[in-house]
Design a protein that fits this description.
With about 400 residues, the protein is α/β, with parallel strands linked by helices. The protein folds into 2 domains: about 190 residues, FAD/NAD(P)-binding domain (3-Layer(bba) Sandwich); about 130 residues, FAD/NAD(P)-binding domain (3-Layer(bba) Sandwich), CATH 3.50.50.60. It is about 30% helix and about 25% strand. It is built from 9 helices and 23 strands. The chain has a 6-stranded mixed sheet. β12, α7 and β13 form a beta-alpha-beta unit. The chain is globular.
Length: about 400
């Protein structure tokens, strides 16, 4: 039996398991330091109170039990030895025939911005998203509980980084505030959302169609957009810029960049400036044909050598490729090179509104785009839930034997 070890229970890790699990000669071990799969792409809705925790977190043990030959181990990996084919964790050493690194990325709180890490939240981890949601809900509660006066107190929420995550978080919170205006009245008007980015535009790298219609929607929701805004310092009360006036704020979320996780530092391999692994054309690490890396922990380029943004879509496409590559290698053949590209993008923009583009020529916006995005998300979530239900039934069956 061939043992495949998958490190990381994110979008890429789960997809590679789904693609390999029906192979009779393969057994799979999934390792993650957390007991859950975090649907990070839905963090915007969770932060704004649109979703609950069960909508964005899936138990990995139950999910793995939905397969015949998939085992889950909750532990933190500390190092890998490619020569001995061993992975070392805080609790044990695990052998493998093939190993797949799917460890994702974390928020890059830039060290050159003084006070950024200490005074802002990220969304890469569930606990950080939870803390930010609590801050947002506390603000709304305090506003509701405040007596109206002639001089209402202004509250500014800052979202640092106008990429996909930042835009979606800002849009959903702004929509919630508009909707809450019906219940907490004029008090909601005293809360402002600022979307801040050092780039010349929001969603840098996106098409003009996506940028134009996203900006139009954000402005309609009342989001205040600051581009070409270079943050120099963040303290507990204000954000300072290299140019322009300081911005007083009550709390801040930062989505302005990523960096590879600490495990990458232990691997002898060429890396880029944010410590992502530089892999070869078949997504192998350091020339080892049985060691693969996928998703956000690697630098991924398209056919024109453009670096692709870290998305769930890229993680899943690289996972599907690696599953096929392992099958090909088992058959003692060489896989074709990985072809990375973005098939499309959908931006959730508050309520039942989105902007989307598929294959660069199908362009949709409004409710239609929302329905398409929701269908994609629902299909993914439904698949997870079905597998968990199977796992639950298998557990009950095994207990009764």
């Amino acid at each position: 039996m061939i043992k495949v070890l998958v490190i990381g229970g994110g979008y890429g890790g789960l997809r590679v398991i789904e693609s390999l699990q029906n192979q009779d000669d393969i057994e799979i071990i999934l390792v993650d330091q957390n007991p859950y799969h975090y649907l990070q792409t839905e963090a915007y809705g969770y932060i704004a109170g649109k979703f609950d925790v069960h909508d964005i977190a899936i138990d990995l043990q139950s999910w793995c039990e939905g397969f015949a030959k998939v085992k889950f181990i909750q532990t933190k990996i500390t190092s890998l030895d490619f020569e001995t084919k061993l992975v070392h964790s805080e609790d044990e050493s695990i052998s493998y025939d093939y190993v797949i690194l799917a460890v994702g990325a974390r928020t890059n709180f830039f060290s050159f911005i003084e006070g950024l890490r200490e005074n802002s939240y990220g969304v890469k981890f569930l606990n950080r998203a939870f803390n930010f949601r609590k801050e947002f809900e506390d603000l709304l509660y305090n506003k509701l509980n405040t007596k109206l006066s002639d001089k209402p107190e202004k509250f500014n929420i800052a979202v640092g980084g106008a990429g996909l995550s930042g835009v979606e978080v800002a849009a959903e919170m702004a929509y919630v505030l508009k909707d809450y205006g019906k219940t907490i009245g004029a008090r909601a008007e005293d809360i402002n959302i600022y979307l801040i980015d050092a780039s010349a535009t929001i969603l840098p790298g996106a098409s003009s169609f996506i940028i134009k219609n996203t900006q139009k929607r954000l402005e309609k929701l009342g989001v205040k957009i600051l581009t070409n805004a270079f943050i120099s310092k963040v303290d507990s009360k204000k954000i300072s810029f290299k140019e322009g006036e300081d911005l007083e704020y009550c709390f801040m979320i930062f989505t302005g960049g990523i960096k590879a996780p600490p495990l990458n530092e232990t691997i002898e391999c060429e890396k880029n400036r944010i410590n992502q692994l530089i892999v070869d054309k078949t997504l192998n690490v350091s020339g080892y044909k049985n060691v693969f890396a996928i998703g956000d922990c690697i630098e991924m380029k398209d056919e024109h050598e453009n670096i692709l943004p870290p998305t769930a879509q890229s993680a899943e496409r690289s996972a599907e490729y690696v599953a096929k590559a392992i099958r090909t290698r088992i058959q003692r053949k060489e896989p074709e090179p990985f072809k990375a590209n973005i098939m499309g993008i959908f931006v959730a923009l508050g309520g039942q509104y989105a902007v989307g583009e598929v294959f660069k020529f199908i362009k949709v916006q409004g409710y239609t785009a929302y329905l398409l995005k929701k269908a994609i998300t629902y299909g993914y979530y439904k698949g997870l839930k079905l597998r968990i239900n199977t796992g639950f039934k298998n557990r009950i069956k095994n207990k009764n034997i």
